[in-house]
Design a protein that fits this description.
The chain is rod-shaped and about 65 Å long. Helix content is 84%, strand content 0%. It is mainly α and 70 residues long. Helix 1 runs antiparallel to helix 2. It has one domain (2-64). The chain has helices spanning 2-22, 27-64. The protein contains 2 helices and no strands.
Length: 70
């Protein structure tokens, strides 16, 4: 989670600076058009990893306690 967040922040900063340097005429909206989908993608990736982790925990729980918890 923290590693994903740090990679995303570094990528966002890189893209933002590239937009600021390469396309100054685009202004804020040019940056927003690129960064907002990245934030959405990061959110989806975090939710997906949480979902996979939860499914894995449920599977492991069923293996450990096949008859349920008394």
């Amino acid at each position: 989670m923290l590693k994903q967040l740090m990679i995303f922040i570094a990528g966002t900063l890189l893209v933002t600076f590239a937009v600021l340097i390469g396309f100054p005429q685009a202004g804020f909206m040019g940056i927003a058009k690129i960064t907002f989908p990245l934030f959405g993608f990061m959110f989806a990736a975090i939710k997906y990893t949480e979902y996979k982790r939860e499914k894995n925990n449920q599977k492991r729980f069923k293996e450990l306690y096949p008859n349920g918890v008394d």
